[in-house]
Amino acid sequence: MIHRRAAFALALAVAGLPAAAQDVGPRRAPDAGARQRVEVPSPVLTIDQDRLFLESQWGRRVQEEIEARSAALAAENRQIEAALVAEERQLTERRRTLPPAQFRPLAEAFDLKVQRLRAEQDAKTRQLSRLREEARRQFYATVGEILGDLVRDRGAVAILDRRAIFLSADAIDVTDESIARIDGVIGDGSEIMPLDFDTAATPDEPGDPATTGQPGLPATPGGPATPGQPDLPAAPAEPGAPD
């Protein structure tokens, strides 16, 4: 089926070339710098689905808002990490003067606090990913009617994602035209789907492999922690335990 689809797309690309392209007679040189795409009648059009979203006003707004939120989350993680490091140092000092029976509850409470904060911050990062995917799905659901009008205006019957086609003529690509139409109709989509960052992110249940971590270890070995995974410390060892 894949080979038949590729062969069909190739046949369309060849058959769709203008007759002038087969003329071997003398031709007039095009104007310098002139770049004009010729609309070739074709029952099938192609589109770059990723570009359609990312280069639209809607897609650019989503990326900008999520990047700004990610930067704020990274700054929040650094503040949390600094506060926990300071608290860890205080525990280390108290360990020298407290008997094990009194120090152990303090160390356990600190460990639980670290795990809770990590789960909360991880949940915020996952929320950003969910918002990005939700905005993308809503975008494609919203622009279907606009693309349908484009198909009818071109006298075509379908639009295929370019990634699913082995070879096609650029003349049947309608990505730029689609973006222009979408921007003209729905703009940045903020009235249709504003990003709700105020919805509280819910940490996964304890023991979930997605969030269970080891306090004191970087989230990414050999590299900086991701925005949702601060490099959190662990509680000091109990008195008498090896450091």
UniProtKB/TrEMBL annotation:
GO terms for molecular function: unfolded protein binding. Residues 193-243 are annotated as: Disordered. It holds the Pfam family OmpH. Residues 63-90 form a coiled coil. This is Periplasmic chaperone for outer membrane proteins Skp. The keyword Signal applies. Residues 1-21 form the signal peptide. Keywords: Coiled coil, Signal. Residues 209-229 have a biased composition (Low complexity). The keyword Coiled coil applies.
